[in-house]
Amino acid sequence: MFVYLLLAVITVSVWYVRRKYSFWSDRSVPFVRPRFPFGNIQAIGRRMHSSQLMTKFYTELKPSGRPFAGIFFFTNPVALALDLDFVKSVLVRDFTHFHDRGMYYNEKDDPISGHLFNIEGSKWTNLRKKLVPTFSSGKIKLMCPTIVAVGERFRECLERCIDGSGDGGGDGVVEMKELLARFTTDVIGTCAFGIDCNSLNDPKAEFLRMGRKVFEVPRGRILKFFFMASFKDFSRRIHIKGTSEDVSAFFFKVVRETIEYREKNNVQRNDFMNLLMQLKNSGQLDDSGEEVGKLSLNEVVAQAFVFFLGGFETSSTTMSYCLYELSLNQAAQEKARACVRETLHKYDGQLTYEALMDMPYIDQCINESLRKYPPGANLLRQVTREYRVPGTDITFPKGMNVMIPVYAIHHDPEYYPDPECYDPERFAPERIESRPPYTFLPFGEGPRICIAQRFGMLEARIGLSVLLMNFSFSRCSKTNIPLVISARHAILTPEGGLWLKVEKLKA
User: Fold this and answer.
1) How far, CA to CA in Å, does 284 sit from each of 136, 141, 153, 292?
2) What phi, psi does 114 have (nearest 5°)?
3) Is the pLDDT reported for residue 428 higher than 90?
4) Which listed residue, of 85, 283, 303, 469, carries a Cα 20 to 30 Å from 248's Cα?
């Protein structure tokens, strides 16, 4: 009886898997042949980054002329977007069908995961409404002097690295990715928590260590991420947590202590934590007068956590790649430096918010870095209600995921000729106008576009302006050409760091 039962279980399991893997062929959709048990993602985290794998699939399947093709996460079918009009449908036109990101979160067992990036449905709608005013241009302008002050400490830190009194060897060869991560950690620590993380002076600072721990993950955790996204309900039933216990405990402790200290001592600061405290205590921001609803302590911690992650890693990698490309293109570097100097001359030498908004070529350099190295290499959306794809007889069932391969679109020669070439002129106003919409998606698009886009761009402008005003950058013997993307990171990260020769400019 045991043998018969075992055979029956094996037979049913094989039938179930084959049935799942026939989803796309039954609908005559071109697809990548899956392999059990991982489907099409077995290479992620081991041989290649997810951006490279999705680009491979995109390149192979785009000639089909279909709006999308089929891939599999484990045994679950996923639609891979191939057409810009389909991308527009998913992100904007039919947003009500693709309301959610399809990310795993578990507020019961892992409350810090219940942040704006992950949550779904009406809970996301209500929370976004509460948080949008905190990222207005007016609020971010108030934070600008704080970031500029951290930028000045960053300049001093880099000078110490160059002359040998800091972490550098005195030969001017510096690992810029690590140093920029320390800069953005101090910026976010100050703006989000009102805390001096001191990571520019202490490379072992706890904020920095926690940030690294979230983004640098072994292959097992990368596959765990895809498993949780593919089997969310099952993962919640078995109490899987997406955040390490020590990371969660650290951020809860920091936020709780910060709030208690500020309330006890009546501390007011122009930072994100102050705005979250207003929402926690009164349900409205002091200068708006609009009642948007209170936040719980768990919600405050979760939003502070995701704000830290967003500003810590994405901004530092964007600036790293920008400096790398400018070090290989000295003419573009000189043009960027001239842009900063000319703008500062107009504003009496002060790095003000208005001056930072008036540096068009710096923006072009940042945008070209975001094109070539988008931090969010892929966008995931989940079908929230049954969706009939326009112009086809295919219906996506509720719960299915759609993958938008941002990195692949950004490297498609149809939209960006010679895509591996770094060319800031691609983002001159007339060139932008000549390109189809939805070919540039570093922050996403539509109602779920990155809420902190303005802050991230300001942080990058300040960091690059300070660096270009004071230093020159060039390749060295440790500079990897071309760069190799690490398969072990969720965000596009250069393998082995990013080493450049840095020289202080004469006054």
Assistant:
1) 14, 20, 34, 6
2) -85, 55
3) yes
4) 283
